[in-house]
Amino acid sequence: MGRGARSGPDGLVVVDKPPGWTSHDVVAKCRKLLGTRRVGHSGTLDPDATGVLLVGVGRVTRLLRFLTALPKSYTCEIVLGVETSTLDASGEVTATHAMAVTPDDVRVAAEALTGEILQVPPMVSAVQVGGRRLHELAREGREVERAPRPVTVWRFEVTPTGDPLVYQASVTCSSGTYVRSLAADLGAALGGGAHLRHLRRTAIGSFTEAEAWPVEQVGPEVLLAPAAALRDYPQVRVDERVAAEVGVGKVLDRSRLGVGEGEGPWAVLDAGGALLAVYELHRAGTVKPAVVVAPAGRGSSGGRAQG
What we know:
The protein has 8 helices and 19 strands.
C-alpha cells in the first residue's frame, strides 16, 4: 500500500453503521482495526440510526469537509399522532393527537416540504446557539429560540403501510437537513404531530449502502484511494511540471490547471491518478489550493485503485 508523508494507511472506507453505535464508536473501532489514530468521519449518525458513514483514514481526514457537503439519502418510518422530546422514537412522548388522514393528504403535505425550505434545527442537534450546542442545552432541560436555516429537500416520498398512521419515507436532501424535523413538520402540517423511527442513511453522494462494509470487516484492503474519496467532484490530471507547482501549494491560472470552466472545487491528480490536492476558485481567473495532500512527485493512492 502506498504511503504519504507520514506512515500509515490513507483512504476512505464506506461503513454500514450498526444500531446502538455512535459515530465516534465507529471511528474508535476503525482506529484499532487499521492501527492508526488518523481516522475521522463525515456526517454524524445518531446511535439509533444505521447506514452509510464515511470514514477517512490518514490524509483523507483532511478531505472530510468536502464529503460532508454532499447530498444525503435516507429511509425511515414516520409515525403520525405522537410527538416526542427528540422528534424520534428514542425520546419521551410529549403530545398525542387523534389524526385521520389519507395517503393523498400525507403525499401533498410531503410535497410542500420539498425544494428550498427553511427548517428549524431540533434541540437535540449539534447546532450552536450562544456558544453552546443545542443538545447540551436540551440535556439541561432548556429550550431556546432557534433561527430557521435554509436547506434543500430534493425528494420526500411517503408510502402507506399496514398502519394508517405509519408511513415509510424516502428523503434526499442537502447537508444540514434534519430528517427528524421533516417528520415533525409533516405531522404539524397535517394538523397534529409526528416522530420518526428506523432511520437509515442509504447514500452520501455517490457512496451507497451497496458498497458499505460492516465495521468489523474494516481493514487496509477495503480502503478506497484518496482520489476516489473525491469522485463526486470534478477531477483534473496534470503533468509533472504542474504537479510540482501543485505540490508546493502555488496559486495558478485556471488555464494552467486546466479548469477553464466550472466553479470547483477540483480534485487535482498526477499523471498516474494519485491525488495531489484540492483546488478552489481564487480571484482574477486564478485558483488556489484548499488542501494539499501529497508533495509533488510522491503519489500515494493507497487502497483499491480508483480514479
